[in-house]
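Entry 14. Two folds queued back to back today. First construct below, sequence then structure tokens.
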Amino acid sequence: MSGHHPLQPYPFSTALFALILLFLLTLTGCSTSTVIDEYRTTNTKLDLNKGEQVVIMGRRHAGEYETEPDFINCISNRIATSGKLSVIPEQEFLDSFYPWFEPRVAPLKLKRMSRMLEEPIIAERIKALGIRYMVWVDGNTETTDKSGSFSCAIAPGGGGCFGFATWDKASIYEAIVWDLKQLDEKGRVKVETKGSSYLLAVGAPIPFIAQVQSDACKGIGNRLKGFFLHGGGSQQEPQKTTGHQGNTES
């Protein structure tokens, strides 16, 4: 019949569907979950006298992997922002003690550290810098799964991308606190953060990135701060100062 045309999709409906999809992805795509396990040998805060410092060190396993320097800096900055803790930057410490803390010779155990402190030159530098506590952080962040695809094209009238991709990341780290004065271990904090990120491409690619490593830094940094400061841990993370503890966040 004349005057009738095949139905065409309404641009408004298409735009509305895209907006709803974007909204749902925003709610679900940027979330992370964190589990923290903490152990302390004492229920009182650790002694840190005037002039004494803490150093946060990342494990580097030559030929395997290294705990990311940016992550170590993140923890150090988070602890130091309180203004009540003096934290020596990792690179400054490594430069001062080269080559004793290079990957192949760095002490993996406290017993090895105690033997290193028998060397006068090392012991004197530790004392001069006021290093009381050494915190070793071991772990990394890696992509555990990914799927989907998208493609982009350029045409005379313009260009754009189309597709959908997702990937999961996991950050798993453990921090061990050594007291270099008493030569014993004061506690451990283990954090495991997981999250999913998405990339939606309908014209221009739009990423929704889960801040997995950042949340892991926040979790482990707050707990380490709590070793030295009353109320140092996050108010959203109830603490026990003795025994093992697990905590889940979303």
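Second construct, same run, same settings:
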Amino acid sequence: MRGPGWVAVSGMDLFRLYEPFVLEVVMIRKPWENLLLHKKITVLVAVLVLFTLLTGAGYHSLVGQVRDMAVEQTTDIMMQDYRDELKNLVDAMAPTLAAAIEGEKDEKQVYRNFSELVKNARFFADNSGYYFIYKTGGTVFVLPTLPDLEGQNIIDKKDQKGNEFIRQLDQVAQSGGGYVKYWFNKPGKGTLPKLSYARMIPGSNYWVGTGVYIDDVESREGEILSNIHHTTSSFLMKLYLIIGNAFLVIVVPLIVLMMVTIIKPLRELTEVAEQFSEGQLKLKIPGLKRKDEIGNLARSLDRLGTSVVIAMQRLQKKN
């Protein structure tokens, strides 16, 4: 009894389904049958080697992608930690600054109040962290590390990559707060990549920001990449050595064994058959004790030779 999902499929339907595959096999089969056995073995070995090489190349590429993903994710985690820390520092200081100037109209007093809170504030392990305060529009108001710039408008200032980072900080601050990455001088270290966060001081036309040099992220990224590269390279080298040794120790001997146990006996039996055709029937046939197809062929030739001899003896008796 057929189930409800049963669908009748005719032989013609199956033929149409597999026709492209069948035709392809037929097209390949004829030239394959015409190849000598040692050439067939050579082709099979070449296919095996090619498959191994392609598999190795694919695995090598996959390992490289995993390595890059690991470095990228590690870098993202480190950068996110910096972003969170910068935002927390600025978010904590902004309302404090707002409270310090609440109701104050005198700009000089505002400056003094801000300076008292941020001039000596330092953070991070190397004390490279500090607050900076600007008026909207890019005028430096309080800048502890470069007080000579206070009062100057540097909205057009660019870093070594051509980024107008003050303008960008001014824009993100007025947009509710945001991050800007740029290059800036670090005392004693030169110009290094830096990430800063800025936001408006509530109820004022000033914005406050702070930044962190992220050269350690790049150095850490290089260190991680080097470690992963060393580990993966060592692993891949061992893998390739194992595959190479396996090929030399297993595959090559098997090929030689096939040549010796298959091709050589077939050639000997072919010579026996040719001598049979020339009337030389009393020959020692190799491989009679073998249990495989070559042994069967040898025994068939032996029976053929015996049959021919008997037939010729009968003819001779009749004559």
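Quick look at the second one. The beta strands are 131-135, 139-142, 178-186, 190-200, 206-213. The chain is about 60% helix and 10% strand.
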